[in-house]
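Severity: low
Component: inverse-folding endpoint
Summary: output formatting inconsistent between runs
Steps to reproduce: submit the following structure tokens with default settings.
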């Protein structure tokens, strides 16, 4: 158990695998791209896969995340440990459910995309460790109650759109939800009354 924890701590200290500004159209293209080299190189396993928990794919032209899981398993030694993903400034129109399969995800940047529907955020409620999220610069930012909606759906996040979430933000979001979100009606089967 201790060895595994030490391994995860070491991964957290590794720099991100950086594919930013590569003009990437399809996720699969990452396997043939060379990542950017930062101040510190990303360590690699014996198989040549990156030993990191962070991934930058920002400032590209992605419009979907098809084959995301398969591509990451080719790039990362431990894709299940992915904790930080930057997909900002792409052309994503929705929040792909594949992101919710990374249960260790704590930071997700989606700002500057093309997300139009506020209920897309609901998908992220299944991420237990999500603490930081960005969505500004998407069309949903213009919807009335944008911040309150997101904070009511994701009560565990501590930073939203690079701004800290205060106790007052949480109170406002709770009140907003009570006033604006109608509870689902329970339909009784007709057979029960016959």
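Observed output (run 2 of 3):
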């Amino acid at each position: 158990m201790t060895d595994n924890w030490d391994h995860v701590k070491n991964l957290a200290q590794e720099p991100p695998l950086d594919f930013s500004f590569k003009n990437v159209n399809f996720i699969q293209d990452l396997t043939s791209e060379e990542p950017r080299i930062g101040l510190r190189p990303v360590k690699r396993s014996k198989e040549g896969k990156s030993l990191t928990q962070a991934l930058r794919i920002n400032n590209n032209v992605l419009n979907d995340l098809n084959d995301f899981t398969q591509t990451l398993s080719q790039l990362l030694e431990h894709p299940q440990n992915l904790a930080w993903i930057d997909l900002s400034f792409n052309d994503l129109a929705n929040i792909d459910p594949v992101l919710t399969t990374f249960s260790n995800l704590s930071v997700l940047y989606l700002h500057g995309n093309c997300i139009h529907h506020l209920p897309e955020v609901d998908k992220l409620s299944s991420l237990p460790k999500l603490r930081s999220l960005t969505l500004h610069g998407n069309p949903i930012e213009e919807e009335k109650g944008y911040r309150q909606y997101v904070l009511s759906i994701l009560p565990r996040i501590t930073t939203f759109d690079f701004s800290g979430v205060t106790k007052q933000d949480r109170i406002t979001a709770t009140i907003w939800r009570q006033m604006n979100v109608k509870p689902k009606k329970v339909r009784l089967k007709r057979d029960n009354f016959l």
